[in-house]
Specification:
two-stranded antiparallel ribbon, two-stranded antiparallel sheet, mainly alpha, 9% strand, 12 helices, single chain
Length: 299
């Protein structure tokens, strides 16, 4: 059946009546799990943080020793996660580090093998086995054939893709039971292991830039407490240089914050000073000004 994607409004083919999105990326963007931006600098920053995290966990898969950074992922050793690793890379390094320390480093193939549960996949396993055997029963790049769970159908031309083979909800006992439409979609694909599939999708990432960024990456300072600055400057009569030492931040940052506050204060003073009473509007203005000054005294 044909449907319209709720995110990109493009028409797409699906055999699932409850389907709302043409691909996983559209679903994540729609639910604001990821940003629609594909900005190169953002991707390099995220990959540089990931490389820093990989270096923290000995640079290689704990099971097979694979050290290709595009193959490696983070597996929580216990059920104590605060963040999902996939969505953590836009956070501060100190938060990332706490979560990474709960993990072990695995390549994607070993990770899929670790999570593979025969009972969970039993109903669909037979259909996948038939299609995998038809496609050669091994990764077309590296020859991997250890686990069915780690083998993926990759469309050679994404613009010619109707649907994902892995989402086909069909139970068959032999290849002849698959209809022509499904067979046509299978023939558009190549069989890859999860590691090679990840590397293929990372082919447009500039590794040199990632390495350079990872070496110079430095976490930004903590957010400056403006209320504390106002208290130290306006009430305790501290100098800017003294405040910078107390809060461990630059003089220019503090000076800019104080300057903005003075301009705001002057603006309110000009608008609300000596209001003429007698009208509802003036009385409201007077109350607003008194409220503003009371707020500043609390600060």
């Amino acid at each position: 059946m044909k449907k319209i994607c709720e995110n990109c409004n493009q028409e797409y083919e699906t055999n699932q009546s409850k389907s709302k999105f043409c691909e996983k990326k559209c679903r994540l963007i729609f639910h604001k799990k990821i940003s629609p931006s594909n900005n190169e600098s953002e991707n390099i920053l995220k990959w540089s943080k990931k490389l820093k995290a990989i270096n923290l966990l000995e640079n290689k898969c704990k099971i097979c020793g694979d050290d290709n950074i595009f193959h490696l992922i983070f597996h929580h050793k216990e059920n104590n996660k605060v963040y999902k690793i996939a969505g953590i890379w836009d956070k501060r390094w100190s938060d990332i580090k706490k979560e990474i320390e709960k993990c072990e480093l695995l390549c994607e193939n070993c990770h899929r093998e670790k999570h593979y549960n025969e009972k969970e996949y039993e109903s669909r396993r037979k259909t996948k086995e038939i299609i995998v055997n038809y496609k050669g029963n091994k990764c077309e790049i590296c020859g991997y054939n250890k686990s069915l769970a780690a083998l993926i159908f990759h469309h050679k031309d994404k613009n010619n893709k109707k649907y994902e083979i892995g989402k086909i909800n069909i139970r068959v006992d032999n290849l002849q039971q698959l209809n022509d439409d499904v067979m046509l979609e299978i023939d558009k694909c190549e069989l890859l292991c999860s590691n090679c599939h990840r590397e293929k999708h990372a082919s447009n990432i500039n590794l040199e830039k990632i390495l350079n960024k990872s070496e110079i990456y430095k976490e930004q300072g903590k957010k400056i407490d403006k209320n504390m600055i106002f208290k130290l400057y306006f009430e305790d009569n501290k100098k800017i240089i003294e405040i910078s030492k107390i809060l461990n931040c630059s003089k220019s940052s503090i000076s800019e914050i104080i300057k903005e506050e003075k301009i705001k204060k002057l603006k309110y003073t000009k608008v609300f000073s000596s209001p003429q009473k007698g009208t509802v509007t003036d009385e409201k203005s007077h109350r607003r000004f008194e409220s503003y000054l009371a707020h500043k005294r609390v600060l």
